[in-house]
Amino acid sequence: MPRAAVPRREIVTHSSEETIQLGREIGAQLKPPALILLSGDLGAGKTTLTKGIATGLGAAAEEDVTSPTFTLVHKYDGSTRVYHVDLYRIGDIHDLETLGLEDVFAEKAVVIVEWPEKFAIRTDWPIVNIHLEHVSEDIRRISIDDPAEVLSSS
Question: At the topology level of CATH, where does 9-145 sit?
Answer without folding.
Answer: Rossmann fold (3.40.50)
